[in-house]
Design goal:
Elements (H helix, E strand, L loop, with lengths): L6 H6 L7 H7 L9 H11 L12 H7 L4 H15 L3 H35 L3 E6 L2 E6 L8 E5 L7 E13 L1 H4 L5 E2 L18 E2 L4 E13 L5 H4 L13 H30 L4 H15 L4 H18 L2 E3 L3 H6 L4 E5 L10 E7 L2 E5 L10 E3 L2 E3 L5 H12 L4 E6 L6 E6 L2 H12 L4 H7 E7 L7 E8 L4 E7 L1 H5 L2 E6 L2 E4 L2 H16 L3 E10 L14 E10 L4 H12 L3 E5 L4 H11 L7 E4 H6 L2 H8 L2 E5 L3 H13 L4 E5 L5 H6 L2 E5 L5 H6 L2 E3 L4 H41 L8 H11 L1 H8 L24 H26 L4 H22 L16 H19 L4 H4 L6 H35 L1
Helix pairs in contact: 4-6, 5-6, 5-10, 6-11, 6-26, 9-10, 9-11, 10-25, 10-26, 11-25, 11-27, 13-14, 17-19, 18-25, 21-22, 25-27, 25-28, 25-29, 27-30, 28-29, 28-32, 29-30, 29-32
This protein binds adenosine-5'-triphosphate.
The site of adenosine-5'-triphosphate (ATP) has 20 residues, from α14, β17, β18 and β21.
Subcellular location: Cell membrane
GO molecular function, one term: ATP hydrolysis activity
Pfam family, one: Cation_ATPase_N
């Protein structure tokens, strides 16, 4: 337990000037980590490991924000004038409606903010901590001082740490020190207590990132007590969450306000010049302004985005940057990793090659049960020293753990790999020969490690046996390994690696790779002194031992997902660190690589200029044996060809490519913090099919936004047309401001939201991707808004005119009929908006029950203001009879059905033409 001196002692302690032992003592912790009780007590004392967030908007500010909208201010201004003109009922009702609308907007926004905040939690960083002797992964916020944690390349350092073990550990500390070159870390104490942060090389600070190697450390400060916490105010605040579309719509809203004010001015002035009454004209002006402004639009866009993002989470795609929701629908290329994304990442060694002989290995999954076969006959691997050495290297040069887990209460037990599946497969392979980690480490102990990374493509460990002999055991990509070998182990003897032996190794490697096996090579080298390990490049002059080929079956759902992409005009490219032949074989199995598609490898890329790559990239489907830095070149080349690129990655070196891609994607399970932070989208199941699901949702969300933009704007056009033509014809006001406001804010809102959660059309993944630069009104939407709007306006006006003709003394009745026609025409039109291209008959009316319910409730609201006697004087309505209603309904249906009929005849013509031919 920590003493009650509390964090003051933590803050003032010069951890870097203490030895590791002193640090651990001071933190009162052993290498096996804290106990749960310790953790509980320390959490009470220090709180969560979080930086205080910037000021959050209070609920009140959020509510008041609703009224800061320019459009609403115009309305309130008009209301004020009505008030001054002593039209109190109007003024009060308008204010009431504006407040109701404010509440609706407020609740929607709170809900949207909540769901976006929960996204943040989903993508929060984690830490690998050792507590009570067990390793586990916890949210970084749960760390407390004294926790022992492990670090690995790609981690964002989760707290301030004193290092206790390092293996080639380097961190990039520019966030804290401004120094952008990575700093190599050590564990020895630093004598100068006043050393600057950059010189405290035995410490790692929160917010910096691990660029290479591995390490272990003890947490010395968390949350606001870290160095980062001290400068937390300087840290950039959250990114602007507005999407380009939201910004464009906001801009559009402003333009509409000016248009509305312009039209209003024209009408008012014309009216007054014609000798109309000032107040009448003012009323007309306000009505027009109200009609033209789509008040509900911004709020509905936010809610549609937020709900869409929720749907994506259900399909296991977590959106980190809201604008990417829009870009997703524009993706033309997906560049995907192979291992784990296209494949299952469940490796099983099927073949081993040693000195010209292939051995088969039986057994499936991670259960260490199986046999070694030579020409179909079972052999004992322990009797073949070369094979035994290969298996030992596989087990020792390994950081994975093979464990047996009990599945529930039943008998069933399951073998599970913790760590890298490639290494897990080697543990299983060793296990099949009875070679287990714990047993072998009794005779040959691991002393040091040079970790694997995807640039080196190999990993080594230094071991010492009972006799004190030291060996560097190496495993890695065969081609990389071979270039570092000078000898080979053949039947227990070390012989020089002749050209023909080299050739036979390469052939065996190719043969296995063509069978879609992932091949690893194994080698070793005796070392005489640990100092040799510190040499610049100790993995030289190695003795080659053999090869192991492992199967990593493709994910079942991926084949279909790739077909879906093809239909949707999206190309899939495989980018992998694996061997070219392996990559090619799997790409063919998955249908990624067509007959004449090009396969390039890292060497090819190295020799190509950027322009040559740009010229070839459209015909290339597989990039094999690439290093992460190649990914950036590939993204840039694709973008130069005009592609919108989605790119996956998981390692620290993938971050630049993920950032440069139009949609950077990282892996929720195997991804590093750095890759996740760079990405716009996280796949919580690491699965390629999830990218396709996210693209489908992205397209759906955009379609839905277009659907309600169409609905709301067509409604507004209808209102303007009604009012404007009536003015020009010198008719009385067909709709009162209060009625228009009611329609815009109350009866239109619910159906528009329901369109925002509409089901996607069946052909959504059969269309080509949308052009990024396309306007929201593209592909005929602008025409549809105007044509439907004008027809709705004319129908309303016609009904009003008819009402006036039949009963000239009853203006209120004519207005009520116009009001009802407007509302009903819109509520019918809303069903037409569900299909972008095909119109009302292409979709099942009852598929979107939210829409049906919202249309019913909007109709009910209309009936309420018409038939509830106390509301009639406020809305100036009168009850209508059956005949009037018949007229209203027929007129309301005309705009939608007239155009549907026109479309039907237009579509029928070419069909007739075809049959005549
Ligand atoms: P992808 O890029 O599609 O995820 P990958 O997993 O094969 O494919 P890397 O992890 O960069 O890509 O691995 C590159 C190569 O390094 C592999 O083909 C393999 O030969 C070798 N390799 C992979 N994992 C290890 C490891 N743990 N130890 C040693 N070598 C490895």
């Amino acid at each position: 337990m920590l003493t009650e001196k509390g964090w003051h002692s933590v803050q003032k302690t010069y951890w870097h000037s203490m030895s590791v032992q002193e640090c651990l003592q001071k933190q009162e912790v052993k290498l096996s980590g804290l106990t749960e009780d310790d953790v509980y007590a320390r959490r009470e004392q220090y709180g969560e490991n979080r930086l205080a967030e910037g000021e959050q908007k209070s609920l009140l500010t959020l509510f008041l924000d609703q009224f800061r909208d320019f459009m609403i201010l115009v309305l309130l201004g008009a209301t004020l004038i009505s008030g001054l003109l002593e039209e109190y009922t109007d003024a009060i009702t308008i204010i009431a409606i504006v407040i109701v609308n404010g509440f609706l907007g407020f609740f929607q926004e709170v809900r949207a903010e909540r769901s976006l905040a929960s996204l943040k939690e989903l993508s929060a960083p984690t830490a690998r901590v050792i507590r009570e002797g067990k390793k586990r992964v916890i949210p970084a916020a749960e760390l407390v001082p004294g926790d022992i944690i492990e670090l690995e390349a790609g981690d964002r350092v989760p707290a301030d740490l004193r290092l206790i073990a390092v293996h080639g550990l380097e961190t990039e500390e520019s966030a804290l020190t401004g120094e952008s070159l990575p700093v190599a870390k050590l564990v020895e104490r630093i004598n100068d207590p006043e050393a600057g942060l950059g010189d405290r090389r035995n410490m790692a600070y929160m917010g910096t990132m691990v660029t290479r190697g591995k390490g272990q450390a003890v947490v010395v400060a968390t949350g606001m007590q870290t160095e980062m916490g001290k400068i937390a105010d300087l840290i950039q605040s959250a990114e602007d969450a507005m999407t380009p579309l939201q910004m464009r719509l906001e801009h559009l809203g402003k333009i509409l306000v000016y248009v509305a004010l312009g039209i209003t001015a024209v009408v008012v002035i014309t009216g007054i010049l014609h000798g109309q009454k000032m107040y009448e004209m003012f009323l007309a002006g306000v009505s027009l302004a109200v009609a033209a402004i789509p008040e509900g639009l911004p709020a509905i866009v936010t809610i549609a985005l937020a709900l869409g993002v929720q749907r994506m989470i259900k399909r296991r795609a977590i959106v980190r940057k809201l604008p990417s929701v829009e870009t997703l629908g524009c993706a033309t290329v997906i560049c995907s990793d192979k291992t784990g994304t296209l494949t299952q990442n469940k490796m099983t060694v099927q073949k081993v090659w040693l000195g010209g002989i292939f051995y088969g290995v039986t057994g499936s999954g991670y259960e260490p049960q199986g046999e070694f076969l030579l020409s179909g006959r079972t052999i004992d691997p322990n009797r073949r020293p070369d094979l035994k050495r290969l298996l030992q290297i596989g087990v020792l040069c390994n950081n994975a753990e093979l464990v047996k887990v009990n599945k529930g209460k039943g008998e069933e037990t399951l073998w599970q790999v913790n760590g890298d599946p490639t290494e897990g497969a080697l543990l299983v392979l060793g296990g099949k020969a009875g070679i287990r980690t714990d047993a072998i480490e009794q005779v040959e102990q691991r002393v040091e490690e040079i970790p694997f990374d995807s640039v080196r493509k190999m990993m080594s460990v230094l071991t010492r046996n009972k006799e004190g002999e030291m060996h560097l055991l190496v495993k890695g990509a065969p081609d990389v390994l071979l270039s570092r070998c000078s000898h080979m182990l053949v039947e227990g003897k070390v012989v020089p690696l002749s050209a023909s032996l080299r050739k036979s190794i390469i052939q065996a490697n190719e043969e296995m790779a063509r069978e879609a096996l992932r091949v690893l090579g194994f080698a070793y080298r005796p070392l005489y002194d640990i100092k040799q390990l510190k040499q610049r490049d100790p993995e030289q002059n190695l003795v080659f031992v053999g090869l192991a080929g492992m199967m990593d079956p493709p994910r079942e759902e991926v084949f279909e997902a790739i077909q879906k992409c093809k239909r949707a005009g999206i190309k899939t490219i495989m980018i992998t660190g694996d061997h070219q032949a392996t990559a090619e074989a799997i790409a063919r199995q998955l249908g990624i690589l067509p007959a004449k598609g090009i396969v390039l490898n890292g060497n090819d890329l190295q020799q190509m200029t950027d322009q040559q790559l740009i010229d070839k990239v459209d015909h290339t489907y597989v990039f094999a044996r690439v290093s992460p830095e190649h990914k950036l070149r590939i993204v840039k080349a694709l973008q130069a060809r005009g592609h919108v690129v989605a790119m996956t990655g998981d390692g620290v070196n993938d971050a630049p490519a993920i950032k440069a891609a139009d949609i950077g994607i990282s892996m929720g399970q195997s991804g590093t913090d750095v890759a996740k932070e760079a990405s716009a989208l996280i796949l919580s199941d690491d699965n390629f099919a999830t990218i396709v699901a996210a693209i489908e949702e992205g397209r759906g969300i955009y379609d839905n936004i277009r659907k309600f933009v169409r609905y709301l704007l067509a409604s507004n056009v209808g209102e303007i047309v009604t009012m404007f033509i009536a003015m020009l014809m010198g008719l009385p006001l067909p709709l009162l401001p209060i009625q228009i406001l009611w329609v815009n804010l109350v009866t239109d809102g619910l159906p528009a939201i329901a369109l925002g959660v509409d089901q996607a059309e069946a052909d959504i993944m059969k269309r080509p991707p949308r052009n990024v630069k396309e306007s929201i009104f593209a592909r005929g939407l602008g025409f549809k808004i105007l044509s439907r709007g004008i027809l709705i306006g004319l129908a309303t006006l016609a009904v009003f005119w008819y009402g006036l003709q039949t009963d000239p003394s009853n203006l209120e009745k004519a207005q009520t009929m116009a009001f009802a026609t407007l509302v009903m025409a819109q509520l019918i039109h809303v069903f037409d908006c569900r299909s972008v291209e095909k119109g009302i008959f292409s979709r099942n009316l009852f598929e979107n029950m939210w829409l049906v319910a919202s249309v019913l409730s909007s109709t009910l609201l209309l009936l309420t203001v018409m038939y509830v006697t106390s509301l009639q004087p406020i809305f100036r309505t009168v009850p209508l009879g059956v005949v009037d209603w018949l007229l209203v309904l027929v007129a309301s249906a005309i705009p939608t059905f007239a155009l549907a009929a026109r479309r039907a005849t237009r579509q029928a013509k070419p069909r007739l033409g075809l049959s005549r031919r």
